[in-house]
Amino acid sequence: MKNGYMKVSSYEGKEGKVKKVVLLYSGGLDTSCILKWIQDKYRVEVIAVCMDLGQQADDLQKIKEKALKLGAVKVYVLDVKDEFAEQYISKLIKANGSYQGDYHISTISRYIMAKKAIEIAGKEGADAIAHGCTGKGNDQVRIEATALALKPDIKIIAPVREWAMGRDEEIEYAKKHGIEVLQTEEFPYSSDDNMWGVTWEGGEIEDNYAVPKISKFLNITLPENAPDKPEYIEIGFEEGIPVSIKGKKMKLAELIIELNKIGKKHGIGLVYMVEDRLVGLKVRGVYEHPGAHIIIEAHKKLELFVCTRAENEFKQQVDSKWSYMCYAAQWMDPLMEDLNAFCDSINKRVTGKVKVKLYKGKAEIVALDSKNALYDRKLATFMKDYSFNQNCSPGFIEIYSLQMKLANQVNSKNET
Question: For residue 276, with 0-12 CB atoms within 10 Å meaning exposed, 13-18 middle and 19 or more buried, which class applies?
Answer without folding.
Answer: middle
